[in-house]
Amino acid sequence: MAKDIFHSHVRLALEKDGWEITDDPLLLPWGSAPVYVDLGAEKLIAAEKNNRKIAVEVKSFLRGSRTEDLEDAMGQIVLYRYLLQRSQPERELFLAVRKDVYESYINLPHVIEFLQTEQVNLLVFDPQTEEVVQWIKWNDTGTSSSDS
Fold it and tell me: What is the CATH number of the domain that holds 23?
């Protein structure tokens, strides 16, 4: 399994943000051929006295067409979401994208509308500082909330 070029950047950004990496990669059972999400992480939320768990799929968006990159990413997100609901429903799925990709493409009105409709949570990271810039989690009303 090949890791995305920005895999280690996202891993370090999550660790800086207080997350413990529990799986690298996160294995999801699917018949005789398991599926792998890039990272699994958890964070103790003291106020709630429980562990919050996430799965993160890292996408570089480096090909000539960012729309084709999004198409590929969405195929993975749909499959991973299905498998997580069956085996680890407590784990939230996030698509990790670079800050510049978010600002120049993902944040376009038609792309944001699509991601809202599909409830694709985003983790925006800066590869230079290896830090999480923004968490975007869509709620049932289609609005986003910053999260950490």
Answer: 3.40.1350.10
Locate 100 and state its tokens: 């510049």
Single pTM value for the model: 0.90
What is the identity of the amino acid at 35?
A: V
Residue 1, in any domain of the structure: no
Query: How many whole angstroms separate alpha carbon 46 and alpha carbon 146?
Result: 19
Q: Please, which residues have CB within 8 angstroms of residue 112's CB and are 6 or more apart in sequence?
A: 106
The C-alpha atoms of residue 90 and residue 103 are separated, in whole angstroms, by: 30
Give 14-53 pLDDT, tens digit per residue: 999 999 999 999 999 999 999 999 999 998 765 544 688 9
Q: What is the dihedral of CA 75, 43, 105, 129, to 10 degrees?
A: -130
Question: What DSSP state is assigned to residue 90?
Answer: T
Is residue 17 situated within a structural domain? yes
